[in-house]
Every structure is written in C-alpha cells, then in structure tokens.
Amino acid sequence: MIPIELRSSRLRIRRADSGDASASFRWFADASVTRYLPLAGKSVLPLESIESFLAQAASSDRPELAVTIELNSHGPIGCGGFRNFDDHAAEVSLVIGEPALWGRGLGREALHLLLRFGFADLGLTAIWLIVRSDNEPALKLFRALGFEVVEHRRGAVTVDGIPRDKYKMLLSKNDYEELAG
Ligand SMILES: CC(C)(COP(=O)(O)OP(=O)(O)OC[C@H]1O[C@@H](n2cnc3c(N)ncnc32)[C@H](O)[C@@H]1OP(=O)(O)O)[C@@H](O)C(=O)NCCC(=O)NCCS
Fold this sequence. Notes:
The protein is an alpha+beta fold. It has a single domain, classed as Aminopeptidase (3-Layer(aba) Sandwich). The protein has helices at residues 21-28, 31-34, 47-57, 106-120, 136-144, 173-180, and strands at 5-7, 11-15, 64-71, 75-86, 89-96, 126-132, 148-159, 162-172. Strands 1-2-3-4-5-6-8-7 form an eight-stranded mixed β-sheet, sandwiched between helices. Helix 1 crosses helix 3. The longest helix has 15 residues, at 106-120. The chain is globular and about 40 Å long. Coenzyme A binds at residues 33, 36-37, 94-96, 102-108, 129, 131, 135-138, 140-141, 144.
C-alpha cells in the first residue's frame, strides 16, 4: 500500500480507516452535504455499509484509495480519494463534511494536496471528476485549480423529479504544474 501523510498549514490528509465510520455516517446523513452528490434525494447510507467500505479501504489502494481530511486541532472534517483508475488517469473525489467550515479555503487546500499526491506519488498524468452543473461552489473550486469541462451530460440524473446535468472535468498534470507554478 502507498503511505499517505499529506500536510498543509491547516490540514492533514491520511488513509481512511474504520475509526472514521461515525464521522462519515454523520456527513453523509446531512442533506446539505449530499445535495449535489449521487446520494441526493436518496435514503441515508447505512452505518454498516460505511464500516465495511472503510475496513476494505484501510488495507488497499484499489479499486478505491480513500482518505480522511483532518483539520489541525479539530480532527476529521471530510473525505475523498481516487477511484476508477485507468492507465495513468483516475477520478478524484472531495467532500468537506462540515458545512460550518465551508468557504474558508479548506476545500481548495485539500484538493491541492490530493492533486499533488495524485500526480507525484500515484504517477497520474490526468485527474478527472464528475460534478453536477448546478454545484456552484464545487465548480468554482475546480475551475480555479485548472479543471476544464470535457463532457456535458444532459439530464444525467433526476433528483426529486428534476433532471440535472453533470459535467466531466479533467485536469492534466502539465496544466496543473503550469498553474501551480
Ligand atoms: C465543494 C466543497 C468541497 C468546497 O469546499 P470549501 O471548503 O467550501 O471550499 P473553499 O472554501 O476552498 O471554496 C472554494 C470556492 O468555492 C466558493 N464557494 C464556497 N461556498 C460557496 C457558495 N455557497 N456559493 C458559491 N461559491 C462558494 C468559494 O468562494 C471559493 O471560490 P474562490 O476561491 O473563488 O473564493 C464543499 O462545499 C463540499 O464538500 N460540498 C459537499 C460535497 C460536494 O459537493 N463535493 C463536490 C462533489 S463533485
């Protein structure tokens, strides 16, 4: 397994494990957190399925490499990771599970750490993600870090009877390095 210990001034990102189950359960039971996620409008994820996912993720990097995001002196505040590995590309995911902490630049800080790790340590040359086209905060964040829309999936999902579009966004290692300087 790849060791994961990523740090910035405010954050630590480490491999997720079973000890994160209760925090994850709380994040994914919060409708404001799941509003734009595939879970939107669906029933709450059972604690047991979170526990079994985390137990598996704690001891493997595939099919999903799962991380927990900690805020210094606060503990776990979110999660993310990489999945859908394909040659030198993978999908990244990011959730800051504490809405009270949104808008303080923590999402941006966490994504920077994940991107640097993905390109430098996982050897990826492209990182992509799927985002709802009405998820304004996420779109702003992804565009600011250099992600570009490469696919527009109209009516990709219907939530509470309303069809919603999704974007596939992609960032190449070259573009990231150019932007990050
Ligand atoms: C998307 C998410 C990770 C952003 O986290 P965050 O810690 O608030 O991000 P930041 O504080 O770094 O802000 C990123 C950008 O979003 C903007 N933003 C934050 N809250 C916003 C809001 N309510 N409306 C519009 N823009 C907003 C910020 O202004 C910032 O842009 P700027 O740098 O140009 O000012 C967080 O909202 C989240 O986890 N949401 C739930 C899960 C989710 O939707 N994940 C993405 C799935 S694809």
